[in-house]
Amino acid sequence: MIFCVATVRRGDTDALSFLERIQCPRCWRVYKHKSSLYKHLKWECGQESQFRCDLCSYICKQKGHLQGHMRRKHSLQPLVDQ
Ligand SMILES: [Zn+2]
Ligand SMILES: [Zn+2]
């Protein structure tokens, strides 16, 4: 799983951009747009485990589901990770 590191710049950003920043109440990540925070809360924050398909936008919570997806949709055998 890949996390994007939110870069919070201070100093040269003005007060307006400070006000525009939206922070996740759980992990304190900072977002510029509410929609980004909602997406984060829905798909990232507090999710115990998440598996994403590298080939499309498929996301699931169980590894088995992703493996099944890879086989069905992409005819690929997933890497065995045990
Ligand atoms: Zn969060
Ligand atoms: Zn896929």
TrEMBL record:
Cross-referenced InterPro entries: Znf_C2H2_sf, Znf_C2H2_type
Domain C2H2-type intervals: 22-49, 51-79
Keyword Cytoplasm included in the entry's annotation: no
Gene3D superfamilies assigned to the protein according to its UniProt record, in alphabetical order: Classic Zinc Finger (3.30.160.60)
Domain of life of the source: Eukaryota
Molecular function GO labels: zinc ion binding
Keyword set, alphabetical order: Metal-binding, Zinc, Zinc-finger
Entry-linked SMART domains: ZnF_C2H2
Pfam families: zf-C2H2, zf-H2C2_5
Designated name of the protein: C2H2-type domain-containing protein
Organism whose genome encodes this protein: Zophobas morio
